[in-house]
Amino acid sequence: MLTDDRHALILRELQHRGSLNVSELAARIGVSGMTLRRDLAALEDQGSLQRVHGGAVSVAAATVEGNSQHHGGPGGALQQQRARGRGRTGPGVRTPIATIGMVVPSASYYFPSVIRGAEAAARDLGVRLVLAISNYSQTEEQRQIERLLANGVDGLLVTPSGESLANGNTLKALSLANVPVVIAERPIDDVLDDVALESVRSDHVRGAEIAINHLIGLGHQDIGLCVRQSSPTAVRVLKGYRLALERAGMEHRDSSARFITVDRDQPEALREQIEELVDWVAVSKFTAMLVLNDEDALTFVDCCHERGISIPGDLAVVAYDDEIASMGAVPLTAVAPPKFDVGYQALQMCLNRIGPHFGNATALQQVSLSPSLMVRESSAPQ
């Protein structure tokens, strides 16, 4: 692999994941760790990334992490973005028209695209965006919300750590906020009407339906599902899977779905569980699988190859998330939630609610955006 090709792959990996591990990536692309470390040094000199122990992080992730340490621990940081555009009063940097805080669970997987969407809207609209990371901790989430409010933000974008806002301290903290709040990438159907929230999210029910309809269109009738149990998206993907089969007149059973329960910080136990999943797929005689998320889908395909199951010859596979699905030995067909658009529209919606000078918002909104399907090599006709 040529140097320019390696550099492009490294930057693509960081764009998708926010960070990389030298040993893991070197093994995956077939180069030495020394070669990869030289590549990282060259890219760092160009300002394209920041090296850390054992790997590298994107510039955006490094900024978030650096701010976290400065303000007292992981996720304790506020990343301050100076916007450009509307409101400029001279040749220099203009004063932002509003400050909006944003709290997301992660700066590495899935959410970098949501953050980039919000950043783009902030630049276009002349808003200062302040970012905080909760690391999937509801306690940290509440602390970040309270800190942003204490610092005087004009509005909030929040992605809760869990699937539901109905209970917990996060909802309590948001109900006490006296600024507009937009929930990103989570449903608010079960939130009490007396809490004034708006939302922008990907329609994951529809996303799963799109995947299953694609496989049905290829002639597959025995289609299984595997989802990560801890994922806030799992419930809606399962619902979409069942709806698609029902609408196609195909019988479905609860046993047609399996849940991954082992965390990725236990790699040996996780691989063992996915190997058991492959055994179940073989016994069940499925010809196609939908797997949430990309990381588990790539491990699943690797285990299939070890068992002599050809992808897509013996089994078609569709991943859900499209973060790193294209980077496998077999590039995976994947459902791609509109993450960038979610971030962009969430910030727009929040600004419209801040005051009459910025928009004419009246009724509270719940916006649902449809995912798209990226067709690659892992799905083929039955």
Could you describe the 3D structure shown?
With 382 residues, the chain is an alpha/beta fold. It folds into 3 domains: 3-59, Orthogonal Bundle (Arc Repressor Mutant, subunit A), CATH 1.10.10.10; 60-202 and 339-368, 3-Layer(aba) Sandwich (Rossmann fold); 204-337, Response regulator (Rossmann fold, 3-Layer(aba) Sandwich). The chain has 12 helices and 16 strands. The chain has a 7-stranded mixed sheet with strand order 4-6-5-7-8-9-15, with helices on both faces. It has a 6-stranded mixed sheet with strand order 11-10-12-13-14-16, with helices on both faces. The chain has a 3-stranded antiparallel sheet with strand order 1-3-2. α5 links the parallel β5 (98-104) and β6. α1 (3-17) packs across α3, α5 packs across α12 and α6 (138-150) packs parallel to α7. The radius of gyration is 22 Å and the shape is globular. The model is unreliable at 63-93 (pLDDT under 50).
Brief synopsis:
With 382 residues, this protein is an alpha/beta fold. Helix content is 41%, strand content 19%. The chain folds into three domains: 57 residues, Orthogonal Bundle (Arc Repressor Mutant, subunit A), CATH 1.10.10; 173 residues, Rossmann fold; 134 residues, Response regulator (Rossmann fold).
